[in-house]
Amino acid sequence: MPTILGQNQYGKAENRVVRITRDGDTHHIKDLNVSVALSGDMDEVHYSGSNANVLPTDTTKNTVFAFAKEHGIESAEQFGIHLARHFVTSQEPIGTARIRIEEYAWERIATSDANSRFIGADDVKHSFVRKGQETRTTQITYDGQKWEVVSGLKDLTVMNSTNSEFWGYAKDRYTTLKEAYDRILATDVSARWRYNWTDDEERMPNWEKSYEQARKHMLQAFAETYSLSLQQTLYQMGSRIIESRSEIDEIRFSLPNNHHFLVDLEPFGLENDNEVYFAADRPYGLIEATVLRDGAEQRIPVDMTNL
Amino acid sequence: MPTILGQNQYGKAENRVVRITRDGDTHHIKDLNVSVALSGDMDEVHYSGSNANVLPTDTTKNTVFAFAKEHGIESAEQFGIHLARHFVTSQEPIGTARIRIEEYAWERIATSDANSRFIGADDVKHSFVRKGQETRTTQITYDGQKWEVVSGLKDLTVMNSTNSEFWGYAKDRYTTLKEAYDRILATDVSARWRYNWTDDEERMPNWEKSYEQARKHMLQAFAETYSLSLQQTLYQMGSRIIESRSEIDEIRFSLPNNHHFLVDLEPFGLENDNEVYFAADRPYGLIEATVLRDGAEQRIPVDMTNL
Amino acid sequence: MPTILGQNQYGKAENRVVRITRDGDTHHIKDLNVSVALSGDMDEVHYSGSNANVLPTDTTKNTVFAFAKEHGIESAEQFGIHLARHFVTSQEPIGTARIRIEEYAWERIATSDANSRFIGADDVKHSFVRKGQETRTTQITYDGQKWEVVSGLKDLTVMNSTNSEFWGYAKDRYTTLKEAYDRILATDVSARWRYNWTDDEERMPNWEKSYEQARKHMLQAFAETYSLSLQQTLYQMGSRIIESRSEIDEIRFSLPNNHHFLVDLEPFGLENDNEVYFAADRPYGLIEATVLRDGAEQRIPVDMTNL
Amino acid sequence: MPTILGQNQYGKAENRVVRITRDGDTHHIKDLNVSVALSGDMDEVHYSGSNANVLPTDTTKNTVFAFAKEHGIESAEQFGIHLARHFVTSQEPIGTARIRIEEYAWERIATSDANSRFIGADDVKHSFVRKGQETRTTQITYDGQKWEVVSGLKDLTVMNSTNSEFWGYAKDRYTTLKEAYDRILATDVSARWRYNWTDDEERMPNWEKSYEQARKHMLQAFAETYSLSLQQTLYQMGSRIIESRSEIDEIRFSLPNNHHFLVDLEPFGLENDNEVYFAADRPYGLIEATVLRDGAEQRIPVDMTNL
């Protein structure tokens, strides 16, 4: 046979599970999008169509919903760990499980209102508005021995309206760009960071706190960096996390440079003193890099977009 | 000629203007998406291609950016009023201008942090993160005499995890639905409300405060209503606004019923006591209605989706 | 009560029904997205939450799937007529039904291949590839007496690489556009046309043939018009349909002007003789108009976008 | 310094270039979306913000448009090869260039029409309608010595309405799926294939013909395979290409299983003899695998989605 099978994986993608926990009248929500990918001894299903080793994707879906009941959802990471362990340890042909999860945050609707004429307003503890902003992500991989947890976020849109410059760059025949000494710097942050927790024997990070802190450090580094290039800002965001969070060894960023072009108002007899910008769609700069703890292995794949 | 021209309009759509205002080191952002539609004496351009009466859409774009400088952007509504007045009063062939604006909200990145080792953190007043959640909208129409302002929002996702029932409905041969006595009620609020301000002689509403208050009342009515149907909740949301905001006479809602189906865990020997839900995409219920101040004219078009 | 209920409607949106018809080994597909909107005596469900008059949206969904079996799907229009008639005639509180349908076209995968080494290749009559291009649409409205059928399409992207000019337009203080004597004209056609069939006593149009012919005439008019403005092209597309199809009385277009800007290559010492263009996203011109048979009533709502 | 920089790359993404070639009155279109990613000696821009080694992304954009003039666009692959070679050979700090291109196909609008009353209809050779269906893709990588070309397509939606079964699978506590002996098999094909051309000394493949043939073989293999699992179909699609096209050594597929569920019509007293299906959105099965020429190295990254 001149053709052979290479890497392969399968499972049910995008299981939209919502878990409500009731603490008296006070409700809590976890809202996840869970994708399962299993791999192992799967040659036959590709070569002959024999499904003997194939746990149906429908079963992987059922397992997601059943586990939301059996284990609850303490965090996306912990939930993914339960799922990955289950598939690898319970199905002999499955060697590796990879669980990817997106999490959508909700906040409570504020109903206590001194001026409200409506009764009972401050008693509502089951009403929520979706927070918007970033989608939190995690990817749990387990091969029966070692864990790899890569968490992150995407679509966190940020802007500095000053403290950004761009000059002193290389020039060639096709260079027409003018140097900028005060520009807008804006991007949609996509980031994935890898935890150095790999073994059940080790103490597990506090996933919720770690996420909150990593996000805070990234945002603050973005705000506080006087930027000579988006690459410099990226590196500051990454190193701030590496320095502040000992549980994280590696972080990969994909940062579009959301161009805001200063509009030329001279034809209309107007001066534009960094006031009026055109927010462009395409094309955009795309800056991507990995920041590592010194000595750590680079393991996060470089491509976070599928352009 | 057996064929004639009916209603027509033209202009530049989706002008993405960002306006920065600097108050010392403290910056402020307005981030808009502005669409211009002009109509009037435009038969010839359709019949013969003569552009004599056609102000180019490129010019309408330039005007949006120039006005962001000349008038600033106090609110989306006020900005739209400046634009609409300009086109109608300065171009003889143009009888009516309609300006539609989407506004994206930003909040400041919090950098003051007692625990931060980084210097100057609390001095950053030019760093922002996009708020996410709803998109604010407005539509300004002016015919040279009367104004119509229809503001609103879209994509504000809300959920009540209890206090929703659905029973006692009509049944026919195709009815299989089981009655529900405790269900999740979730929707993406799209709302448009019409102001009763129509004349330059009248006192203009405070557009920013009115938006904030209308949004708050909608959310609180959603949270506080014990719901027997999404229609009932919709009506409570609308009447709360009409009763609370005298400047608003009419509101139109388009509310998808974002179904959260209780997952049947019995096959796995598990009970699902309103804990685990499957969040479905399609199909969804779609509930649409207008709520009016008694005596007001119904003027907002009924279709807010283009399904 | 200071607040009253205005127009309202409800139903299940986006029911994705696929109907396979087997003619021996030869299969046929109809692939629809069906949205139901019902209105009538629905005050109580809004005011008090009483669902006594409410046929559940779940039932409207079931009806769509059951009718695909009971009536088949001869055309989207005929299917919508069956549904609308059913809801209005079988449920006393329902006065009006509006059915909106999107249809996705498929074409057969060509397997007969003289060079193929694979057996039976030309026997495959059950394999399809989705056609892409436009989405066909229809909207059926029935109030128990009269029918209104508005069919159309959206997202049909077309381009003329020459035979388009734009000059002789009005100018004001904000005009900077240069006149163009040979430009690209490109748009995504969205069109809706209204049939003059309104009564069960009248002979119904051949919906499939009418769609195919209206589409052909639009495309040919687009191709054959030497254009001095997109408005002129629009009018030619509309009048060609009105003149060619006696069953259609009115057509509404929404045509974005998909700008293709000639790239300035002079800084690189190159001439750009209408060869290299930048295809821009936003902003874009938006040209909208209704074309009518003389004497016909204008009934299609003017807004086909929800910018 | 406890933190270091890992892999990094930058460039301008999504340059939308349209190239018109005029052969007398007959025009030809190439419509591309080009993304440039450069890497090399870029530590300083990350560490200190020095842009001395950074050719601006704006320049990479200009180069795309200038090259469309200077070299024309014979094929997406050939165009990417010109670009990659230029960046690596002309900028000393740049070690590797990766060019990703999406291509959108257009077909001519048929205007010759024996029944047309309109003059000159068959002379129109500059009018096009976008083909829809799949997006063609390619990725060119060059490090100054070796080439890697990975071409493919995405969003090619296909369906077999019979000749698909699924049974004999593994079962566990969470398995409820019923075996299927005649089901719909539908997917959106995403595929990337790697060419074994790596060296300027070797004869380059005919990129246009190779694409057309690979696409044809994939579609025919999909149609002609009697499928016991989507994995089996995937393998047939891949091996058909490997066997038929000697210039291709490896192919990676990502195939969602677009579930079409047979609707239960029994509650309505109706039988559903594989006639009426509900086309579901999420969740979906996701089947991914690489198919290789025996002895070839597996080089295409396994993740084609960013779930």
Automatic annotation (TrEMBL), chains A, B, C, D:
Pathway(s)? Purine metabolism; urate degradation; (S)-allantoin from urate: step 1/3
InterPro entries registered for this protein in UniProt: Uricase
**A GO MF term:** urate oxidase activity
UniProt superkingdom: Bacteria
| Pfam families listed in its UniProt record | Uricase (PF01014)
Q: What is its EC number?
A: 1.7.3.3
Key word Oxidoreductase present in the record?
A: yes
User: Which reactions are catalysed by this chain?
Assistant: urate + O2 + H2O = 5-hydroxyisourate + H2O2
SUPFAM superfamilies with a match to the protein in the record: Tetrahydrobiopterin biosynthesis enzymes-like
Q: Member of which family?
A: Belongs to the uricase family.
PANTHER family, per database record: URICASE
Task: Name the job this protein performs.
Answer: Catalyzes the oxidation of uric acid to 5-hydroxyisourate, which is further processed to form (S)-allantoin.
Protein name, per record: Uricase
